[in-house]
């Protein structure tokens, strides 16, 4: 029996490019009007809402009269700047019909990687919710270069869910939900009704390829559900083409695929660590270290480290890999990369003799360590 979502009080609703722009033909005002109507109804039942809307590039391409989506970054950035105007205009005027205000929030990966800016974004979003304003979030595509992009708004929506501690992330897309195989290639694929967000089998069901206008495909949505689950949120993947999909959530008959959290909600600081997209280095662990991290929630000591990769400073984010190279955890490291190389394999009481100083007895303290596998 599926968990009902009727008690969820804070939702993030993400809509994909193909939906918002009627498959790239231009903003689908009718559909936007219908989502807004349903969101307003949810608000009246006491739900707080943040929207994450894609579509700036697809809308910009259409407005500029280009025959297809360009591949050059500067053209994508220009298209995003043009299309974003259309997006905010559409949401603002639809919500205005109900006397509600919207706020444009454009975020980059760097904004959320930096702890101070992350906290600022959190305060702002929460202030907007308190003011009864609907934040409409997108990636700040005009300044985000290839290396620092989220790339897909599913990831961004999951991080926004973490920022506002949402109960529910709704990902509206052009499919009725997650199928056991890509329905574009396998018409006989069947819809998954409910699963644990961290179920390892889910990723194998997804092809990486997005639709013509999307960017992350179903894989990005499953990964987003995992990220949201770490902060305690469930994710519903459903068709934005179904009329009444948001109303159905409120009445307990949500269509689509529900991916539920199976672990305890991480504390806020650990959510931020888990939400980071880029690591500065890697620590290879022996099997014993993997076991104590995973099963006993202990700190990582240098004695369990067999190799160090990358150049990083004290306080940077590093990934911890098992002997097969699979990431098992990530955390903020207490020693820089050259000190970590010196300490690898040694016990904590040797730190002073090896380095001439001791900052901490652990390489990564458990308060700064998050299991990711
Ligand atoms: N197992 C799967 N179940 C459903 N859709 C899948 C699956 N694997 C791949 N896909 C594809 O993912 C696409 C949705 O991703 P994407 O185009 O990025 O959407 P959006 O623009 O809404 O973010 C679908 O059109 C579908 O063809
Ligand atoms: N920031 C980009 C988002 C691209 C994107 O993630 O698209 P989608 O996979 O349709 O959600 C835009 O607005 O075009």
From TrEMBL:
Coiled-coil portions: none
UniProt-annotated binding residues for substrate: 54, 141, 153
Enzyme type, top EC level: transferase
GO biological process: L-proline biosynthetic process
Chemical reaction(s) catalysed: L-glutamate + ATP = L-glutamyl 5-phosphate + ADP
Binding, ATP: 14, 173-174
InterPro entries assigned to the protein according to its UniProt record, in alphabetical order: AceGlu_kinase-like_sf, Asp/Glu/Uridylate_kinase, G5K_ProB, Glu/AcGlu_kinase, Glu_5kinase, Glu_5kinase/COase_Synthase, Glutamate_5-kinase_CS, PUA
Alphabetical list of PROSITE patterns matching this protein: GLUTAMATE_5_KINASE (PS00902), PUA (PS50890)
Pathway, per record: Amino-acid biosynthesis; L-proline biosynthesis; L-glutamate 5-semialdehyde from L-glutamate: step 1/2
Family matches, as HAMAP family: ProB (MF_00456)
Similarity comment: family membership: Belongs to the glutamate 5-kinase family.
Function according to Swiss-Prot or TrEMBL: Catalyzes the transfer of a phosphate group to glutamate to form L-glutamate 5-phosphate.
Protein name: Glutamate 5-kinase
Origin species: Spiribacter salinus M19-40
Organism lineage string: Bacteria, Pseudomonadati, Pseudomonadota, Gammaproteobacteria, Chromatiales
Gene: proB
């Amino acid at each position: 029996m599926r968990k009902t979502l009727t008690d969820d009080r804070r939702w993030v609703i993400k809509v994909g490019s193909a939906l918002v722009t009627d498959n790239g033909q231009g903003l689908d005002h009718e559909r936007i009007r219908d989502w807004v109507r349903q969101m307003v109804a949810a608000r009246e039942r006491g739900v707080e809402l943040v929207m994450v809307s894609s579509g700036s590039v697809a809308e910009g391409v259409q407005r500029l009269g280009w025959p297809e989506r360009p591949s050059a970054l500067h053209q994508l950035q220009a298209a995003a700047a043009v299309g974003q105007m259309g997006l905010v205009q559409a949401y603002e005027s639809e919500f205005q019909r109900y006397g509600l205000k919207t706020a444009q929030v454009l975020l980059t990966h760097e904004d959320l990687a930096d702890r101070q800016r992350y906290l600022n974004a959190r305060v702002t979003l929460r202030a907007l919710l308190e003011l009864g304003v609907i934040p409409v979030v997108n990636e700040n595509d005009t300044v985000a270069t290839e290396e620092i992009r989220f790339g897909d708004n599913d990831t961004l929506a999951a991080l926004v869910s973490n920022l506002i501690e949402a109960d529910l992330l709704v990902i509206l897309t052009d499919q009725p939900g997650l199928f056991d195989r890509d329905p574009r290639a396998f018409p006989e694929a069947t819809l998954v009704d409910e699963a644990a967000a961290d179920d390892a089998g889910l990723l194998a069901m997804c092809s990486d390829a997005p639709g013509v206008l999307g960017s992350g495909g179903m894989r990005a949505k499953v990964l987003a559900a995992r990220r949201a689950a770490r902060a305690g949120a469930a994710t519903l993947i459903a068709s934005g083409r179904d009329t009444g999909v948001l109303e159905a959530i409120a009445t307990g008959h949500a269509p689509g695929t529900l991916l539920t959290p199976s672990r305890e909600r991480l504390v806020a600081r650990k959510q931020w660590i888990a939400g980071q997209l880029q690591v500065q280095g890697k620590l290879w662990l022996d099997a014993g270290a993997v076991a104590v991290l995973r099963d006993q929630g202990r700190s990582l000591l240098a004695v369990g480290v067999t190799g160090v990769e990358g150049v990083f400073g004290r306080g940077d984010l590093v990934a911890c890999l098992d002997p097969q190279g699979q990431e098992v955890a990530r955390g903020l490291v207490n020693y820089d990369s050259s000190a970590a190389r010196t300490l690898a394999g040694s016990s904590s009481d040797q730190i002073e003799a090896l380095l001439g100083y001791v900052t901490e007895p652990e390489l990564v303290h458990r308060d700064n360590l998050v299991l990711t596998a």
